[in-house]
UniProtKB/TrEMBL annotation:
Galactose oxidase-like Early set domain ranges (all copies): 486-590
Protein name (record): Galactose oxidase-like Early set domain-containing protein
InterPro entries: Gal_Oxase/kelch_b-propeller, Gal_Oxidase_central_sf, Glyoxal_oxidase_N, GO-like_E_set, Ig-like_fold, Ig_E-set
Signal peptide start and end residues: 1-22
Residue stretches making up the Glyoxal oxidase N-terminal domain: 89-477
UniProt entry tagged with the keyword Hydrolase: no
UniProt KW Cytoplasm keyword: no
Amino acid sequence: MRASTRVIWTVSVLMLAAVSDAIFPLPFLPFLPGFNNGIHDNDAVEVAKPVATGGKAGGKRRSGGAPEAQTNWPGKWELFLENSGVSAMHAGLMPLINQVQFYDATIWRISKIKLPPGVPCHVVNAKTNKIDCWAHSVLIDVNNGAIKPLSLATDTWCSSGGLTVNGTMVSTGGYGGGANTARYLAACPNCQWHEYPQALAAKRWYSTQATLPDGKFFIIGGRDAMNYEYIPEEGQNNKKIYDSLLLKQTDDPEENNLYPFVWLNTDGNLFIFANNRSILLSPKTNQVIKEFPQLPGGSRNYPGSGSSALLPIHLYMKNPKVIPAEVLVCGGTRHDAYYRASKKVFEPALQDCARIRINSAKPRWKIETMPTPRVMSDTVILPNGDILLVNGGKRGCSGWGYGKDPNFAPTLYKPRAARGKRFRELAATNIPRMYHSIAIAIPDGKVLVAGSNTNDGYKYNVEFPTELRVEKFSPPYLDPALATLRPKIATSPKQIRYGQNFNVKVNLNQKDVTKQSLKLTMLAPSFTTHSISMNMRMLLLGVGGVNPAGGASFEIQTVAPPSGNVAPPGYYLLFAVYRGVPSTGEWIQIV
């Protein structure tokens, strides 16, 4: 990393070590002015004692709900595709067409699938007539596995993304000539990428993109980009950037603040977490309005690469003025893991999960212990509101060959279960999913898992070969023994407006169906890369009543989210959930 910063790091280590070697697990932890350090303030961090896990996970009753269906089934893996054509460094589910977008890095000029006939090859160098006829982007049907290669000209290596109100994917940043680019891919069977190489004011390599309450986008960070900006309309170029003191002060010798976690709070402000610290930023005034306690233990962002989620937001038919929001951060590394890995020393990853109520008057981190250490994992919100931690390793960090000891077994985390009973290890895969892996929830309730490429290019005769196989994982709620509990959405609106009352008709052959046992959830699909699931968001809708609708059918009375602060406009997957068992999702759009 930067030599001058290394000198500061070394001096800081020596000075702090002289004072005390017991205060911090690693010494150099910078502060914002007036920052409330969670390590010094006993009220800012609460650590739960480790509890042995195994068997059934979680409590038997969700908060305010009926008993959840119980199962010891550990889930099931299935091989979906032998060859995805493109290694899934980045992934996003496209609304309505139910196709997942994978793309990698065009700099390698190679993949495992050619551009289709009639699509011109990309001219890499006009002087030498060097061309690239390989596809670096594919659309894959999540139901039948059909693959459609697409052409990309700008380099998407380590970029960011999200979906517009109408379901268009917006990909931003990347490497070299792609770093200032915004790319657009509409959700239609024959659509192609449209690229605008000068759309962004700053180069964005390892940046994070977040959807705002009005459906527009905010983008922050990237290598040597200690700032943020707002993505302009398609075809326009942005020229204005805003400095980020948080990024400047969390940029340690190993960086550890790339791909920061960004979550839209229910008040319309942005929760931003970098390295081990976090703030609440107003996108209206560009002022920091809250500083949160520091999360001890190590680094959580690239290359430390923990993972994060905004926990499901619980809504009611009539919501309180302040709607609670809670952030989860799991895994990561010690602060110097990247440097040590460069010396072939692969330290154990962090084994904690921490959560914080960001709208609390006195927010504090509550820390729990996972069954195993995790780095480079993906965090996926499941249709029933549970969390799946999957992929990654147990030692090292992100980087070419810097991660070791694959974590084959996913962990289920039940955020509404009793503390100490939230974790459960599930069935293991036999495919290592290390650096550059992805995992996303898909409409049938399964999780699509792909990628893993710890190599600079497509390489196969190495410790962890470039991985092109795609798997699907069935969580425990898809236990065949629970099949009769699985509802089916018969009718639901295609579009809703904020605060609108609407009904959802569900087919379910059960007798004890009440508003306590039958729920509705809405899941915003994520853009996933490098262990960060941008814009992933779940709403637990309020239920006014559940009434018989003839035969084995029921009508659920509910209300749409109150505002774009709670749920930005755009497409969501709507699920009916009976005693923890979800239906297949149906697309619904907030307009």
